[in-house]
């Protein structure tokens, strides 16, 4: 990475709710554990599964009854949202001790722009290792780091590479996109949901690289044929994402909500074009509202299902 470029990290906590519970319950250290709504009725949904539970084939968002069928000695813990929010804020504070530029992205993901403070710690990987150890020692949670010049590339680096790396770290350099990002199927592209993935495949664009290498004017034409004139903005958005172009800054304080406020205003990290994503953002605000009112209500939106747990 050249010195005049930004160094942005997306830090993601592994199996976050399950990791918090395991840190709080050392007696379950070597047992498969899930956090799921309504353990008594078996009807809840798995919100988080620890790596041992995942080894048994248990996946997030599956029904608890199915998970118990796969693994009868599964430890099932009821979600404690306030606890997870507290630990999330504790982790954000740890990140803030390394850089002022920390932007919470979700309860278990934060962006860090470490460009200004990196020289105090060494290379990007060395700094990520220091922060990773710090978070582990303080909370028992394992953080994984995608490192790149932009937020979208850092997020892509984390989701597609760091999570699969034993070290939990990955640097995605802009110079190597052709051998890394571009080789990925278009389904792995940031912002591309299952519908858009199908459309890209029908258009003969099966990889992120095939989207990136289509001239923008051509991509606009192709998408206009499918979606009409208004699709120019989405065409440009996908083309920029595929080419790793993203100048959005890491905005400290985004997503911070004043507990006393009733209405919610949020500065979004970027423009949201898809209904699915807008729903997720609205849901995020709704969950915060519930938590600030001291309610234990959690609504999970996944696979087009809203569920109260
Ligand atoms: Mg996570």
Automatic annotation (TrEMBL):
Keywords: Nucleotidyltransferase, Transferase. GO terms for cellular component: cytosol. It holds the Pfam family IMS. Residues 8-193 form the UmuC domain. One of its GO terms (molecular function) is DNA-directed DNA polymerase activity. The keyword Transferase applies. GO terms for biological process: DNA repair; error-prone translesion synthesis; SOS response. It is an enzyme of class 2 (transferase). The keyword Transferase applies. Its EC number is 2.7.7.7. SUPFAM superfamilies: DNA/RNA polymerases. It comes from the Bacteria. PANTHER family: DNA REPAIR POLYMERASE UMUC / TRANSFERASE FAMILY MEMBER, DNA REPAIR PROTEIN HOMOLOG YOBH. Belongs to the DNA polymerase type-Y family. This is DNA polymerase IV. It comes from Paenibacillus vortex V453.
